[in-house]
Amino acid sequence: MIEITDATNYPIDVVNNMLTTIVPDALGVSTGPYGTRLHLPDDASTSERNKAQKIFDNWGNLNLTVSTTSMTVGDADPTVTYDTSDDDLNYVVLLDGVEYATGAEAPVAGTVTLELDSPEAGVYDIYVYRTAGNFASGSVRITVSEA
Amino acid sequence: MAWTSPRTWSTDNYIVTANDLDTEVRDNFNYLKAVHDNNDSYTADEGSDYSTTSSSFADVDGTNLSLTITTNGQVVYVGFVGFARASGSGAATVNFNVSVDGSDYFGDDGIAQVVPTAERGAVSFVVPITGLSAGSHTFKLRWKTDQTATLYASSAEYDVRPMFWVQEI
With contact defined as beta carbons under 8 Å apart, do A107 and A29 qualify? Predict the structure, then answer.
């Protein structure tokens, strides 16, 4: 097993989604007080190792635009946008730290737009990442309060 | 220090010497005490819990849940007790194992498997590791899962203290 490591403890569901998308043969992710480890098979190619490393190197480099970071249940649905020339961007949404939604979104007129549909109360962390190029990622947090 | 097989004593006017007593009593008792005292443990009280999505056995914590002792060639018991969770869509499992000097000691799916109906459950095991030569050996706690596994080791959710230990016998 080859391990790509970082001293930061990243959200495991997000990193796992990224790793298994970007390096399909990856074995998984581990996190703990030591930080984060990406597990690759022993025969992982240099290209695969480099891709995995870029997850760490370019973490947080996408500057997302969010319509609001704080709202009340019943308010207008919040949106997260990013201008890109990529074919699409992947996303992972955590609700109170637990995986809530994942998927991919294609840009329209050069902008990827994600919308939280009638969110219930809770803390939503929206992560968006590239599946090509530098595999950069970014995130925003939207806190939804009870009405 | 080595173990000397105790002699069979007789009453044929043999004069017991200091060397006899040193060998038969002192050295053998010292050997037994050295084996008895040969142990190590780690009780985790960390700043965060451990989690993994690894589908192959990986170290739970290659620094802290890794114990090295210099053995006298006897059997080593390895034990663990903790509180773990396996979560994801549908049934989820987490498997534990022990590696000895870098190799997983138990094949297939390891020693113990947690499939808690409420997603969380206690896990514990004590296993003998045989066939070790006298010398330094490193024992590590390992795990894998088919979805996402968590070993609680901090005050984040359940303020519990998992323990990993080794004892030569």
Answer: no
